[in-house]
Design brief:
Elements lengths: L1 E11 L2 E12 L3 E5 L6 H8 L5 E10 L2 E2 L5 H7 L1 E4 L11 H13 L5 H15 L16 H15 L3 E5 L7 H17 L3 E6 L12 E6 L2 E6 L1 H10 L2 H4 L3
Parallel strand pairs: 3-8, 3-9, 6-7, 7-8
Antiparallel strand pairs: 1-2, 1-4, 4-5, 9-10
Helix pairs in contact: 4-5, 5-6
């Protein structure tokens, strides 16, 4: 799969937040989008997945050459897109297993073998160091921030999308949990040829996931793109080098 963002501008409540973004992510590639608070990273993720709160003001988003801007979020998911939320919400009354089975069957278009499905979930939970009790509870209800991020990672591992956008997958995780989540995500990307767009403020997750491309977002635009050397430059000089506020 090839996800192409072409000249994309979008905003919320009449304010333009992202401006003329160009970015291409292919299956199997790992991209990292870094930037300070308020730079538009989460807005970009929400626009990619059709959140109606955000309005496209220009440009296009293509999957394998076809525009997806007119598609609903579930239709984009069926194409093979996945989003890990920055702040996953609680869903009272919706059991995790029922939620995941329905999602898996809807996306694949066929019924799944329940035993194999459960074996996969338990294997991934072991990899993420998650207690089995989580799968018997409603989605995110009573979970800590770190537990919610693990549950989001588990969803990605089970659904095996073609392109996954991970919005701050490192927030709320202690160092041991971060290592496990990063390792599981990185292994899945390699074994299942998943393209990743990882949104983050900090470079600590990049100690465990090695990106092919790094992009710096400032004021709603991509200020710079490069390789891992760009992260090293950010660690030394910060974001001020791209804002002119030194």
């Amino acid at each position: 799969m090839i996800l192409e963002i072409k000249g994309l501008s979008a905003g919320v409540e009449g304010n333009e937040v992202i401006k003329d973004i160009d970015l291409t992510v292919k299956s199997g590639e790992i991209h990292v989008l870094m930037g300070p608070n308020g730079s538009g990273k989460t807005t970009l993720a929400n626009v990619l997945f059709g959140n109606p709160k955000y309005k496209v003001l220009g440009g296009d988003v293509l999957v394998d050459g076809k525009s997806i801007l007119g598609m609903k979020t579930n239709e984009r998911a069926k194409l093979g897109l996945f989003m890990q939320f920055q702040n996953p919400v609680e869903i009272e009354g919706l059991g995790f297993i029922h939620f995941m089975r329905t999602a898996k069957e809807t996306i694949s278009g066929s019924r799944i073998n329940f035993k194999e499905f459960m074996d996969d979930i338990k294997s991934y939970m072991k990899e993420l160091d998650m207690n089995d009790e989580f799968i018997n509870r409603p989605v995110n209800v009573g979970f800590s921030g770190g537990e919610r991020k693990k549950l989001e990672a588990l969803q990605m591992l089970v659904l095996k999308p073609s392109i996954a956008v991970l919005d701050e997958p490192d927030s709320g995780l202690d160092i041991d949990a971060l290592k496990r989540v990063a390792s599981a995500v990185s292994n899945a990307a390699k074994s299942s040829n998943i393209g990743l767009l990882i949104i983050t403020h900090y470079s600590r997750i990049l100690s465990y996931i090695k990106p092919d491309y790094v992009h710096v977002m400032i004021g709603g635009s991509i200020a710079k793109s490069g390789g891992i050397e760009l992260v090293e430059k950010l660690e030394k000089e910060g974001y001020e080098q791209f804002t002119g506020k030194q």
